[in-house]
Specification:
By secondary structure, the chain is an alpha+beta fold. The chain has six helices and eight strands; from the N terminus they run βααβαββαββααββ.
Length: 218
């Protein structure tokens, strides 16, 4: 049994650019607070002269882990949310793959990238990256996320022992901005990017997988 969602964004404009930028900033800050906090905690231990041996080793591990997570999240946010390359520019698919690979290294999901290389429209790449991160959230206990197709028409499939598809995510991808929260602001922006290109996003959940399909217009 499967449940499909044909996503057609509504006509109302919803939050303006300033409101969306504030929501997106909150999302980035929320993602970074834990790894940056880990860095701070680790440095506090190292600054304490009474801490020796195993405690200092644990502090160094905490710092390394926090730094890895912070760098991965920032590299991802730069491409998925930022203005990397300038407005209207293209983004290297190799850069997008590397950013996602590093991001998935701090999640419980494993990334399988089956899209070609080269430059691609920034808007398409941003949508792909947002949906890939959303797919990782769909397998909180671990699983696989596969990206297939081409940058104009791609499918992202999440499979795992436990599948989650949050209703708020579906609504955001549907372009529903009512009570939008920072967590799902990237999905709302992705829906608008696809709509502006004359395309559509579709989401389907079965007992074994969650599927995101994005098709851009000509």
């Amino acid at each position: 049994m499967s449940e499909a969602f044909d996503l057609n964004p509504p006509d109302d404009e919803g939050p303006d650019a300033l409101a969306l930028s504030a929501l997106l900033s909150s999302r980035v800050c929320h993602d970074l607070i834990n790894p940056v906090g880990a860095l701070s905690s680790g440095l506090e231990v190292l600054d304490d002269p009474s801490m020796e041996g195993a405690m200092r080793d644990a502090a160094m591990d905490l710092i390394r882990s926090g730094a890895q997570k912070a760098i991965a999240l920032l590299s991802y946010a730069r491409l998925a949310y930022g203005a990397a390359g300038g407005f209207g520019a293209q983004i290297s698919l190799e850069d997008a793959q590397k950013a996602l690979t590093d991001l998935f290294a701090i999640t419980k999901a494993e990334l399988h990238w089956h899209i070609g290389t080269g430059l691609a429209a920034k808007e398409n790449v941003k949508v792909l990256m947002v949906l890939a991160y959303a797919a990782a959230d769909c397998v909180p206990r671990g699983g696989d996320v596969s990206i297939e197709g081409d940058i104009e028409n791609f499918t992202i499939t999440a499979t795992g022992k436990k599948l989650l598809l949050n209703d708020d995510l579906v609504r955001a991808l549907d372009g529903d901005d009512a009570d939008i929260t920072p967590k799902y602001t990237p999905a709302l922006i992705a829906s608008r990017l696809v709509e502006s290109a004359g395309g559509a996003i579709k989401v389907e959940r079965t007992e074994e997988e969650v599927i995101f399909r994005a098709a851009f217009g000509s």
